[in-house]
Amino acid sequence: QVQLVESGGGLVQAGGSLRLSCIVSGVTFSIYDADWYRQAPGKERELVAAIGSDRSVNYGNSVKGRFTISRDNSKSTVDLQMSSLEPEDTAVYYCHVVSPGNYVHYWGQGTQVTVSS
Q1: pLDDT digit string (tens) for 69-79?
Q2: Is 4 exposed, middle or buried (0-12, 13-18, 19+ CB in 10 A)?
Q3: What span, in angstroms and rounded, lies between the C-alpha atoms of 37 and 17?
Q4: DSSP string covering 87-110, please?
Q5: Is residue 33 exposed (0-12), middle (13-18) or buried (19+ Cβ within 10 Å)?
Q6: Mean pLDDT of the chain
Q7: Which residue from 8, 39, 55, 114 could staple onto 45, CB 3.0 to 4.6 Å apart?
Q8: What is the pLDDT of residue 98?
Q9: Cβ count within 10 A of residue 60
Q10: How far is CA 61 from each of CA 16, 66, 78, 88, rounded to the nearest angstrom?
Q11: Chain-centre distance of CA 34, in angstroms?
């Protein structure tokens, strides 16, 4: 059974930091690409940051320079370090992994991040 379990969400003031973590089980994590998405109320889900199995990284324009994605294949985790948070970053953040060849996708249940002004 594949499971993605996120943690680290919460309430933070603007300008603050949070670190999200996702533990992945049930797959060979090292060969999967991993991403963080977010969805704010009334908006579509958007890509926040991605890290490939080759450790290449990609960020959404709105978070470049503020967020950092990383992975630890030995622990099957993918983390998102978020700094200089803004109220516009308020959303449910989802962990996502995709198999080689983009055949299978798995999602976590989401963790709420709320940034107060």
Answers
A1: 999 999 999 99
A2: buried
A3: 17
A4: GGG-EEEEEEEE-GGG--EEE---
A5: buried
A6: 97
A7: 39
A8: 97
A9: 15
A10: 19, 10, 20, 13
A11: 8
